[in-house]
Amino acid sequence: MTTGGPSFTNQTLRMVVHPSVSGAAARITLSNRYSPQALEIAAVDVAVQASGGAAKPGTTRHVTFGGSGRLTIAAGAERISDAVPIRVEAEQNLLVSLFVPGTTGVSTWHSDAFDTTYTAVGDHTGDVGADAFDTTTTSWYYLAGLDVVSPTAKGTVVAFGDSITDGYHSSTGTYTRWPDFLARRIADRPGPRKLSVVNAGIGGNRVLTDVPNPWQGVSALKRFDHDALGRPGVKDVILLQGINDIGNNAGPEGRPLTAQDLIDGYRTLIDRAHTAGVRLIGATLMPNKGNGYYTPAAEEIRRDVNEWIRTSGAFDGVVDFDLALRDPADPAALDSAYDSGDHIHPDDAGMRAMADAVDLRLLRH
């Protein structure tokens, strides 16, 4: 979640959630973490999606927080709901509907959801049909997470990163980000013990410094404890981040970036993960020749950083996305079979190749 989202007045926001594991109950997290004023919510419902903004009849459940259907979330705060008895199936979408009766002001949001959110004037949280929802966006608002109460899932893997993890240039509403493909690979393994996968990517996000555009988030150093280590049941984090630091030559305190700056940032995140009892798996940074980020100096930093990720032993494991997706004939460039066209973001096939590059034995089942 980041700051800078639009304001809403007397509206229902209906958002799609794509769970990676099954269960018999769920909790949702609503966040006002990056908003400057308190948030009033008059009603929250969850239902199984039939199609689009329509719910499957008979599946709508009212969501309570401490037994109440109404809540106020202070500026900078979050609230976790009571457990909602609803059958959740892996990859069966849910719809979460929030009614905000007043004017919210700047919203806490996730700008690039790559899914469809439906909005309506007035309280339509309990509507089965979608007729009232006459406006759509591709962002999430206030909805920061879905926690499935599962008899088989024993932990969480967090994919932490920037737009590549967030799914930029993957197909909207098709769940073809690399963490989605990773979740399917985990689910296909034999045996009952499963891991859920949480996507903690933010487009444009950096390791060391905040991005001037507020919707691209505070630095990884600032958000890592909350966004990664704070997820329910987290056991492993896969870190793919740093290319925005390199591409913007964004070193600490406004000075030019060095490879050592990024390495120092990674070491800080490793130490925090280990203190929390979480394994941190490092991923190499993929090539971007042909993109505006590419310069010979930037390429040298990327290669130096990747060499450290591969050889230092500082991480608890390594995923070599660079090796998996680079052009064998030109290692500074993405393989054309995986290039979305901007020479930095993989297409759907590239996202699948990324997930396939993860050795599942690195994850704690």
UniProtKB/TrEMBL annotation:
Q: Which organism is it from?
A: Streptomyces kunmingensis
Q: Which UniProt keywords apply?
A: Hydrolase
Q: Which InterPro entries match?
A: GDSL_Rv0518-like, SGNH_hydro, SGNH_hydro_sf
Q: What is this protein called?
A: SGNH/GDSL hydrolase family protein
| Family annotation (CDD domains) | XynE_like (cd01830)
Citing just one GO molecular function, the answer is: hydrolase activity
Tell me yes or no: is Hydrolase among this UniProt entry's keywords.
yes
Which residue windows are transmembrane per the record? Answer: none
SUPFAM superfamilies recorded for this chain? SGNH hydrolase
Task: Pinpoint the SGNH hydrolase-type esterase domain residues.
Answer: 159-353
